[in-house]
Design brief:
4 strands, alpha+beta, four-stranded mixed β-sheet, about 250 residues, 2 domains
Length: about 250
């Protein structure tokens, strides 16, 4: 349900990147606006016109970041002889094989590499941004403070003007937090698929069931942490993922 491809609409935006068809659902923009509303209001200082500008900046950042993630998957599929198309929608994105059944034909190790390619692409992007800022002598608004302090990333010139600083913060946050969350071992997130395919590659019996059990436990723990720390959207998302894993266990993984 969470990862179903949305039906096309006349308002969708379609284009190609390195020969890979991309469709941006009209619903993507609404989802991005809801996710970024609070942060954009903070940057705008309550000014509604400025908030709109920051929302456009945020949505563009999310679009580029999700596209980078899905291109990682799509290019890995291409490396293994599988053509794909990309759909970006309100829950993120999907790199969809042109014939779904052909994914089954890939070996477990190949499927594991395909799953890992998306988050790795985002983390490499974030690392490149950090390296570029440090090389130019700028402060790096690294979103994980303990890591930023340990790497001495907060020294240097301030990034100006404010919209450029905001774009940098948005880009680093989305390309660090989101792939790390996506690597949590909760199917059908990439981390859950990596765990499942890794176990299949090692010949572990009941790999699907074990991955599902890990997903239920991890999803429930993350949901509990999110609710305790005032992150309702994150809590709802992982509660739904945990429920989906439980449903898969109850119905039998295929």
């Amino acid at each position: 349900m969470l990862l179903a491809e949305p039906q096309p609409t006349p308002a969708d935006w379609q284009f190609e990147v390195v020969g890979i068809p991309v469709r941006v659902s009209a619903w993507f923009w609404l989802g991005a606006a809801l996710l970024g509303w609070e942060a954009c209001q903070s940057f705008a200082g309550g000014d509604q016109r400025k908030t709109l500008g920051y929302l456009i900046l945020w949505a563009g950042t999310v679009l580029v970041s999700v596209l980078i993630h899905e291109l990682g998957h799509a290019l890995a599929y291409r490396r293994f002889g599988q053509a794909t198309h990309i759909v970006i929608y309100h829950f993120g994105g999907l790199a969809i094989p042109e014939a779904w059944g052909r994914r089954v034909g890939l070996r477990p190790l190949q499927r594991m590499l395909v799953s890992a390619a998306g988050p790795v692409a985002q983390l490499v992007t974030a690392a490149a941004i950090v390296a570029l800022l440090r090389a130019r002598g700028y402060q790096v608004p690294f979103p994980i403070v303990s890591v930023g302090e340990a790497l001495d990333l907060y020294q240097g010139r301030r990034i100006e003007p404010l919209p450029l600083c905001a774009a940098t913060i948005f880009m680093l946050s989305v390309n660090i937090y989101w792939p790390l969350l996506n690597l949590l071992p909760v199917p059908p997130l990439d981390g859950g698929q990596i765990v499942r395919e890794g176990m299949l590659a090692m010949g572990v019996a009941d790999a699907h069931k074990i991955a599902g059990l890990i997903g239920v436990a991890t999803g429930a723990l993350v949901a509990y942490w999110a609710y305790r720390h005032g992150q309702p959207f994150l809590g709802i998302m992982f509660a739904l993922l945990a429920a989906s894993c439980w449903q898969g266990l109850s119905g039998g993984w295929r």
